[in-house]
Amino acid sequence: MVGWPGLSSGPLRLFLPRRACILATMAQSEESTIPTVGIVGAGQLARMTCQAAIPLGVRVRLLAERSDDAAALICPNVTLGSPASRADLAAFAATCDVVTFDHELVDAAALADLEAGGHRLAPSAATVALAQDKRRQRAELGAAGFPVPPHRPIDGMDDLLGFAAEHGWPIVAKATRGGYDGRGVWVLDGPDAARHLLARADSAGMDLLMETWVPIERELAVLVARRPGGEAIAYPVAETVQRDGICREMVAPAPVPSDLAAAAETLALGVAAAAGTVGVLAVELFVSGGRLVLNEIAARPHNSAHYTIEGCVTSQFEQHLRAVLDWPLGSTDLVAPAAVTINVLGGEDAADPATRLPDALAVPGAHVHLYGKAARPGRKLGHVTALGATVGAARERAARAAEALAGRAAVRA
Ligand code: ADP
User: Fold this and answer.
1) pTM listed for this prediction
2) What is the pLDDT of residues 1-59, one digit of tens each?
3) How far apart are CA 41 and CA 47, in angstroms?
4) Does the residue 271 lie in any domain?
């Protein structure tokens, strides 16, 4: 409470201290009420989080490896450093109210030390450690009762042959850490392929796990936001369409029966609670035989939920900020019957899609996002979202704009 000295005195004596007091209070509140969220990593997820921070008046600080990282290009508060360096992480955390992450490639032990030193991380070091290790996810979330496929660590050829004898070929082998966009996932159709992979893994010093090959009918993703006290909310279930291990398209709501969608949301909320996450967490699922199978989690904003930027009342990026700052969560309702997002990947010609932007912008209702990244074949360079009365209508618009960015269709008048 602010005291008002001299209230019973004359007007002049009242005015001067009061004005001084107001100014002092404003200065103090500016200092204390604008929180600084630190993001380790400066890719497109951090870039879109910076964008969401603007209307909230939240200050974002980045730990970027390079000054031309997607988010470093647009954020005024960038510290150059490595997420693998304890010293860089500690110096960075000292400048932030809460530290969050653009990716999982961080030393979890270093994060635990930061927490022990009193820094606030959201998600915690323990959640990051779980999210960065597929073997632990299978073991711990399976033990907690979530529906994971049969799985085992691979320590040698005997393990593989024993697992195949039990479950049959093909077997899916995965790098325990560091995989993305299907890099680090191998479908082994027999002992020769298994031997070949083991030799590669040995020379690369890569840990592997194996699991049964799941006949997938659809792939789904559910984004959950969770506050430190455990209050959590799920977004509508999205379908993710993959090609060559890379997610190409997201459709919300997923075209699945309502009971399956509700079960997916419940499962995802359960996983987020089990992981103890704070912030948003994406839960990737398979539908197989009409049932849900848990694939993997990511404890950060996620590509599968980019549709929330235009498609939901609260975008995943704003929601992440709200959750990590322990502020009230926003509505996750869709604002249209359907939202479709299509990823823009670098083509073989490595042409920059930005050069074709006017063609994409000529498509009415197409929301184009380009990440400012150098074009390379297969690299995620942006995405396009369109809303519609039906999935078909939304997809048609998004696809037209995405094709235009890829140079496959000229739509400019
Ligand atoms: P990444 O972390 O690289 O995204 P994922 O574990 O999500 O790797 O696997 C990439 C893709 O491989 C999945 O989207 C799915 O299409 C396929 N996949 C993964 N695990 C299995 C499995 N057990 N059975 C069948 N296909 C799988």
Assistant:
1) 0.91
2) 333 233 333 333 333 333 333 333 333 444 558 999 999 999 999 999 999 999 999 99
3) 10
4) yes
Question: What is the distance between the alpha carbons of residues 206 and 368, in angstroms, rounded to a whole number?
Answer: 38
25 in any annotated domain: no
Q: Are residues 92 and 74 in the same domain?
A: yes
> How many Cα atoms are found within 13 Å in the side-chain-facing hemisphere of 100?
30
Q: Give the count of domains, the chain.
A: 3
Probe residue for ligand 1, chosen from 183, 185, 220 as the CB with the greatest number of ligand atoms within 8 Å: 185
Nearest protein CA to atom 23 of ligand 1, as residue: 213
* Shared-domain flag, residues 78 and 204: no
Asked if 78 contacts 62 with a C-beta cutoff of 8 angstroms, the reply is yes
pLDDT single digits (tens) 335-373:
999 999 999 999 988 899 999 999 999 999 999 999 999
Which of 189, 212, 235 is the C-terminal boundary of a domain? 212
Same domain, 395 and 277: yes
Which CATH number fits the domain that encloses residue 115?
3.40.50.20
Reference 304, options 240, 244, 256; nearest CA is 240
22 Cβ inside 6 Å of ligand 1 = no
* Residues 197, 235 share a domain: no
Interacting residues of 169 by C-beta distance below 8 A, sequence separation 6+: 188, 189, 190, 213
Q: Looking at the structure, do residues 250 and 381 belong to the same domain, yes or no?
A: yes
**Domain check: are 187 and 243 in the same one?**
no
| End-to-end Cα, the chain, rounded Å | 62
Residue whose CA is closest, atom 13 of ligand 1? 245
